[in-house]
Design a protein that fits this description.
InterPro entries: Neur_chan_lig-bd (IPR006202), Neur_chan_lig-bd_sf (IPR036734), Neur_channel (IPR006201), Neuro-gated_channel_TM_sf (IPR036719), Neuro_actylchol_rec (IPR038050). It holds the Pfam family Neur_chan_LBD. GO terms for molecular function: extracellular ligand-gated monoatomic ion channel activity; transmembrane signaling receptor activity. One of its GO terms (cellular component) is membrane. By secondary structure, the protein is an alpha+beta fold. It folds into two domains: 225 residues, Distorted Sandwich (Acetylcholine Binding Protein, Chain: A), CATH 2.70.170.10; 123 residues, Neurotransmitter-gated ion-channel transmembrane domain (Methane Monooxygenase Hydroxylase, Chain G, domain 1, Up-down Bundle), CATH 1.20.58. Helix content is 37%, strand content 29%. The protein contains seven helices and eleven strands. The strands form two sheets. Strands 1, 2, 3, 5, 6, 8 and 9 form a seven-stranded mixed beta sheet that branches. Strands 4-7-11-10 form a four-stranded antiparallel beta sheet, with no helix packed on it. A hairpin with a 5-residue loop joins strand 10 and strand 11. The radius of gyration is 31 Å and the shape is rod-shaped. The chain starts with a helix and ends in a 7-residue tail after the last helix.
Length: 358
């Protein structure tokens, strides 16, 4: 037990040191006393309310947020005589509250944001102590969080999962977390235009904490889907026009003109591919849109080769054979080929989630 206390005290000191680390930790100050016991662990309620989503960087697989954290617990050691004090509540800034708790031979629970990637810049924070020892801690801060659960197989029809994970520094046998659902969720004005965010829920679980032992964790999980109007207008509609233009080429009698126009379409598909890849990380798998674009690129290349072959047949005197192949391409090969590509893409990438999973 003595060794455990020293380890926990070390982690608390690392979190609570003043200076630059003060922008990261829950409180400033020093602790060297253990809170809670295995027989009676401290029960701490955790609420997570995201007011704003400042950025979703899918290439870096992270997102920025402005969040309000709320922690509540009751420690009888912190109780005071309200009649002598003349009020029911005392309000502290975090450093003063740490000093007050330390003077009373007690400590407060500490936490870390498990998937935090940047500095946590605290806008406002305060601790309210009720006469019976009930503490309410509120903190509003902004930070960047990792989003490792992103999966782009269905892009742009994908649904992504976002997490905000608050983990206890103390092992679960000393401090237990439970969720404050009434004080959690997403704000009404998130300020995010690209995504439709919702389906938020608060989950309580355990994880391996800073002490190397099992610690309690509460996480806010929510999902995001894309505004598809943008992709329909900017990507799918131009793609449909290019496919239609490619099909209309077969009605030209001059094969040289067909080759020139198909070559121009090929360059457009290359530009599409670069524009889309700029928004995504360098994935080790194809997305739905990648698959469709690559197949369109190959089809357009095949059209050029096909028209070159028809032109050679015409110049060699096999005009009848060239017209027959051209007729098959117009009526069957081109439209059925694209129908097969789109049908396979829908089945493999959208309808069967595990078929093309990375």
């Amino acid at each position: 037990m003595g060794r455990c206390i020293k380890v926990l005290a070390f982690f608390l000191a690392a979190l609570l040191l003043p200076g630059e680390l003060g922008a990261q930790g829950l409180f400033h100050g020093h602790h060297d006393r253990l809170v809670g016991t295995p027989d009676n662990p401290l029960q701490v309620g955790v609420g997570i309310k995201i007011d704003q989503i400042t950025d979703v960087n899918q290439k870096a697989e992270n997102y920025g947020a402005v969040v309000v954290l709320r922690l509540e617990w009751t420690d009888p050691t912190l109780a005071f005589d309200r009649e002598a004090m003349g009020r029911d509540f005392r309000v502290f800034d975090p450093p003063a509250f740490v000093t007050h708790a330390s003077n009373l031979d007690t400590v407060i629970p500490a936490f870390v944001i498990h998937n935090q990637q940047s500095n946590r810049w605290i806008h406002e924070s305060a601790a309210a102590l009720r006469y019976d020892g009930h503490v309410t801690f509120i903190e509003k801060s902004s930070l960047t969080l990792q989003a490792p659960h992103f999966n782009f197989v269905k892009f742009p029809f994908d649904t992504q999962e976002f997490h905000f994970e608050v983990a206890s520094v103390f092992p679960s046998e000393f401090v237990r977390f439970y969720s404050l659902d009434a004080f959690s969720g997403l704000g009404d004005m998130l300020g995010e235009e690209e995504w439709i965010l919702g389906n938020e829920r608060l989950l309580a679980s355990t994880t391996i904490g800073l002490s190397g032992r099992e610690s309690d964790q509460v996480e806010l999980v929510f999902t995001g889907t894309r505004h598809l109007t943008y992709y329909v207008i900017r990507i799918f509609l131009p793609m449909l026009v290019l496919i239609t233009v490619g099909w209309a080429l077969f009605f030209l009698d001059e094969y040289q003109k067909r080759i020139e126009i198909a070559g121009g379409n090929l360059l457009v598909f290359v530009a599409f591919n670069w524009a889309i890849s700029a928004d995504l990380p360098k994935l080790g798998y194809l997305t739905f849109l990648d698959f469709v674009l690559q197949c369109m690129f190959l089809m357009t290349g095949a059209i050029i080769v096909f028209n070159v072959a028809l032109r050679r047949m015409k110049t060699s005197g096999r005009v009848g054979s060239a017209k027959m192949l051209d007729n098959y391409a117009i009526k069957w090969i081109y439209p059925l080929g694209y129908a097969a590509i789109v049908g396979y893409a829908i089945f493999a990438y959208l309808l069967d989630p595990g078929f093309m999973s990375p």
